[in-house]
Predict the structure.
Amino acid sequence: MSYAKEFNHLEYNVPDFLLQNPVWEDVSWHNDVCPRWENYTLMLAVWVDCAEPECREYEDWKQYTVCEVLTHGGDDYYLADETLFATEDVNILAAWLSLHETYVHLENAAAALNNVPVPDEIMSDELHSLLAMVKERLEDLKTL
């Protein structure tokens, strides 16, 4: 699928990082509200709505909306109803996605450290502190 084929691509300001990064798959479908990209490593979906708010199907949607991709197992993916993040600013979107990716990697590192027979308490404490800081910054970005 291609957003350019499924939607009038002139109405959308699709960020280059969604178009040029192979981990973001264009899953746009004409029956959807607007184009969408999914990242199955981060388990996120990014909706890119019309640049002009008056052209959007839902008046309360921002231009960029992020939600979680869930799975029943295997390749059976569906979208969570809850919005994780939404913004009108592509730079804030990029910052949030980058920070979220960092958070996921830190979470994986903390989980791996917990599986070590004798975990390093100092390292574990540092990872959990970093996780808390990153999570706080992710929340801060929601207010910009």
